[in-house]
Design brief:
The structure holds three protein chains of three kinds.
Chain A (H helix, E strand, L loop, with lengths): L1 H21 L6 H26 L7 H22 L5 H24 L7 H20 L19 H20 L1 H11 L1 H6 L4 H27 L9 H14 L4 H17 L7 H15 L11 H8 L7
Chain B lengths: L1 H31 L6 H22 L4 H28 L7 H23 L4 E2 L8 E4 L4 E3 H23 L1 H11 L1 H6 L4 H26 L2 E2 L5 H14 L4 H22 L4 H15 L14
Antiparallel strand pairs in B: 1-4, 2-3
Chain C lengths: L1 E10 L2 E11 L4 E5 L6 H9 L6 E6 L2 E2 L5 H7 L1 E4 L11 H8 L6 H14 L1 H5 L10 H13 L5 E5 L7 H18 L2 E6 L2 H7 L2 E6 L2 E7 H6 L1 H7 L4
Helix pairs in contact in C: 3-6
């Protein structure tokens, strides 16, 4: 019953994305861009939330996964787009996104392995290191444009693609969290030693979290590249990773709805604060400190999960 | 051969600055068991104190080079000590018994605040660091040019590290610091006020970072509000490489990272400069997480 | 000298000490006995200020020291050689002793106390420059007691000095405890599981079980009372 209804939500969400995409040209281009960024940030933040919030593995390298996805997808689509005729064009983006996600997931596996022994601070700085290494390596690869960046990426991403992926990510992660895997994640996060003692293979869960999180981050990167059609390594520095982390923390680690709200607010906020753009990061950083001291569970708490929100909107069953 | 010598001198100069910063990371880790992410930014503030103070100090001492340098250095060290202790009291102390992740995120927040607050306050553009000590050439052969600058940088770093070692090994407060880093409860039972020791640790660490900032400005005469990020990360890596919590280890790690980076820049490609330290970090964490001189300590959960 | 009244200590929802009271007279040795988990160490840690009391009061002399920070309580004159000895392994024996005198400034007197410590435990003098971590269990216990003495406390609290130590050394250490009491007139609170030994040297004894005081009295009388020994002290 539960899976049936959540599948229905997914179907409705994708259908809505498709319908909206028919009218996307009617939307003011500036607002449209913000809406697309919101979608991409939701994918990034919810996927990082899987690693940070649910599996409790603090990662500062999400931008690295994103850049792998962005570059791989761009390489795939630029190659295919140039050589193929239009009929198969519609398949190019999904293929590029999947390959981008796959490469990022592979990197997630590589990063996941050292997490077998690293914790907290060390893990954070190691993942940051991985992200930076990816960036520096890309900077040195001429076939990816090096430091100058990758240009001429076909502008294939539209409202439909971005928000279908948003729907799929939210659906997949919510389902994962409610499955037995999800219980495993939470066990690892809440008390790793106890989880190990209970025979839970903590390593497996950590690695799964990294692979899944990295996969979706890679797809987000692909979407981003195919929306702005130009990428360079500097866009994926660890400042970007920190921005995503801030969304997860302010939203409340482990709360899908909270993180989605935070992603929306923190994408709109800088635009709204454009007049005082230089204060943006100062405000962000102070928010981070104040929240950690006064409300470390984030603005939306720990228990506030999608399932409960849905339950609130669902009518209570009629009693006989 | 001479080029190699030149690179070694550059490597030791850079390495001694990393060593100064790394000692602060390692001491705070030793006492509080967390990475003070904002430490690299305290280094940056040290540089800026020097930048703003030097033009005022110079006329006061009648342009005397012998006086101006040390006064600016001491001033930066004092300002950063106050900054370090303030950060600890306001941001870290309320979180002392919370999960480490909370403290880590707070430290990142403080770090970003100093970086972007610095951009607002000092302006985002690089500033040229005032000449505290005019550089004179000591050796000028065909292949090797040695000026006073690296000699002064390395010399100052050595003096400060020796002084620090004396404080930690031979004074009562230093001994108390080591006692606290080993067992806080036992230290309390000696009548040691843990908060005082923690503040003292931040004073020592922050003042060394400030000195690093001044020396960095002297060596590469350009500073900017984001300049603490990479030296900070590399100094942290130095501390891990040497064995976190181990002061001589941090100094050794700093030298190794500084040398490696200089050699990669000189002989391989400057573009890999920032990646090499992370490569070393990942290798060390995979194969010898206790570092070169450290003892491995399983994390208490 | 020390007066504990109706002390209660909780770990979260679990009550570890449920209202115990005890008094120690100046210059005497009092012992707090009980089986493992009875709440002995918790009581000592609360007196020292390492744990907060949930209720009751602790007076030292005429001062209320309940829930004062640990370092202030040490400054008022209560030193402890804690359970497990808690030697600073990374500090030398001499540095460990100097840390014991952390709050004192009288260099000459500190030196005298150092000499006294070396005179009662000559082994420590031999090992003066070694790191504390290299000592044997017995030597570490000697160091822990000497370190606490270096504070020149009004009250010396010893938590299970016999635990994990070679029997031959246990005898020496207990002899030294008596010596410290007689020579210095030191007031001592001794926590022990080894009731037999403790009752031999103590003047007064308290027996606690699951956080409650079950009996108190002169050590010599409790030592004679076979029922008490069987019921609460795990003797057969």
């Amino acid at each position: 019953m539960k899976t049936y209804s959540s599948k229905l939500y997914l179907f409705v969400a994708i259908l809505t994305s498709l319908l909206v995409s028919f009218f996307q040209d009617e939307i003011n281009p500036y607002y449209f861009q913000i809406i697309i960024y919101i979608g991409i940030n939701i994918i990034l933040a919810t996927s990082l939330n899987l690693i940070n919030g649910f599996a409790g593995q603090f990662s500062l390298g999400h931008a690295g996964f994103m850049s792998l996805g962005a570059y791989t997808a761009s390489l795939v689509s630029s190659t295919l787009h140039a050589s193929s005729g239009n009929p198969v064009d519609i398949l190019i983006l999904p293929l590029a996104l999947l390959l981008g996600g796959a490469v990022a997931a592979l990197a997630g596996l590589l990063v996941g392995i050292p997490t077998l022994r690293l914790k907290g601070d060390y893990l954070a700085i190691t993942t940051l290191g991985f992200g930076e290494i990816i960036r520096v390596v890309i900077q040195n690869l001429n076939f990816l444009g090096g430091a100058r960046g990758f240009t001429g990426i076909p502008k294939l991403a539209n409202f439909f693609w971005v928000f279908s992926v948003v729907s799929i990510v939210v659906f997949a992660i919510s389902n994962l969290i409610n499955s037995t895997y999800g219980k495993g994640f939470l066990a690892v996060r809440d008390d790793e030693i106890a989880a190990q003692a209970m025979g839970i293979n903590t390593t497996k869960y950590k690695v799964i979290a990294f692979i899944t999180g990295a996969f979706f981050a890679g797809i987000a990167g692909g979407l981003y590249a195919h929306f702005i059609s130009y990428i360079n390594p500097q866009q994926f520095s660890f400042i970007k990773s920190i921005e995503i982390v801030v969304m997860v923390i302010i939203g409340g680690m482990g709360s899908t709805v909270g993180v989605i709200i935070a992603a929306i607010v923190l994408t709109i906020l800088p635009e709204a604060l454009r007049g005082i753009a230089e204060y943006r990061m100062v405000i962000y950083s102070l928010m981070l400190v104040v929240i950690m001291i006064s409300r470390p569970q984030g603005l939306f708490g720990k228990s506030f999960r999608l399932k409960e929100l849905v339950a609130k909107f669902r009518r209570p069953p009629m009693s006989a | 051969m001479s080029e190699l010598l030149q690179q070694i001198i550059n490597g030791i100069s850079l390495g001694s600055i990393y060593a100064l910063i790394a000692i602060g990371y390692t001491m705070v880790y030793g006492v509080l068991r967390f990475i003070n992410f904002a430490h690299g930014d305290v280094f940056m503030i040290g540089g800026f104190v020097g930048y703003y103070a030097a033009p005022h100090i110079m006329p006061l001492v009648g342009g005397s080079v012998i006086l101006a340098g040390p006064i600016v250095l001491l001033l930066a060290m004092t300002v950063c000590s106050i900054l370090g202790v303030t950060i600890e009291k306001l941001a870290y102390k309320p979180l002392r018994f919370r999960p480490k992740l909370t403290i880590l995120i707070t430290a990142i927040g403080i770090s970003l605040f100093l970086e972007f607050g610095g951009q607002l306050l000092f302006g985002p553009d690089p500033k040229s660091f005032p000449t505290l000590i005019p550089s004179t050439t000591l050796i000028d052969s065909q292949n090797l040019i040695l000026t006073t600058t690296p000699v002064i940088v390395i010399g100052t770093a050595i003096i400060l590290i020796v002084l620090l070692r004396f404080i930690v090994q031979n004074t009562k407060m230093g001994t108390a610091m080591r006692a606290v880093s080993f067992n806080q409860q036992a230290a309390s039972l000696m009548g040691i006020n843990i908060n005082t020791v923690i503040s003292f640790t931040f004073v020592l660490g922050s003042s060394l970072a400030a000195a690093g900032g001044i020396l960095y400005g002297t060596l590469y005469p350009s500073i900017n509000p984001l300049m603490g990020i990479f030296p900070g990360l590399k100094a942290f890596i130095s501390a891990v490489l040497g064995g976190i919590g181990n002061i001589p280890g941090a100094a050794l790690g700093g030298l190794i990272i500084g040398m490696t980076e200089t050699f990669v820049t000189g002989y391989l490609s400057p573009t890999y400069r920032d990646a090499i330290a992370f490569g070393i970090l990942i290798l060390i964490l995979l194969f010898k997480p206790s570092g070169i001189l450290g003892r491995y300590e399983a994390e208490k959960v | 000298m020390l007066r504990v009244q109706n002390l209660q200590v909780r770990y979260g929802a679990i009550a570890a000490v449920k209202g115990i009271s005890l008094t120690i007279e100046r210059g005497t040795i009092a012992t707090l006995l009980g089986t493992n988990g009875a709440g002995k160490t918790t009581t000592l840690r609360t007196i020292s200020g390492l744990i907060k009391a949930a209720g009751g009061t602790i007076h030292f002399g005429d001062r209320d020291i309940t829930n004062k920070p640990c370092h202030e309580i040490v400054a008022m004159g209560i030193a402890q050689a804690p359970e497990g000895r808690m030697i600073f392994s990374n500090l030398t024996v001499k540095e460990n002793l100097r840390m014991g005198a952390y709050l004192r400034k009288d260099r000459a007197e500190i030196q005298r106390d150092l000499d006294f410590a070396f005179s009662i435990f000559p082994r420590l003098k031999e090992r003066m420059k070694q790191p504390g971590g290299t000592l044997s269990g017995g030597e570490q216990q000697m160091l822990a007691i000497s370190r606490a003495l270096m504070a020149r406390p009004g009250l010396l609290m010893l938590d299970e000095p016999s635990l994990g130590i070679a029997p031959i050394l246990v005898k020496t250490i207990f002899d030294k405890i008596v010596e410290i009491n007689r020579e210095l007139g030191m007031t001592i609170l001794l926590v022990e599981q080894n009731a037999h030994l403790a009752l031999q040297i103590a003047h007064y004894a308290y027996v606690i079980e699951t956080g409650q005081m079950v009996i108190e009295g002169k050590a010599s009388e409790i030592a004679k009372n076979e029922d008490v020994r069987k019921a609460y002290l795990g003797e057969t």
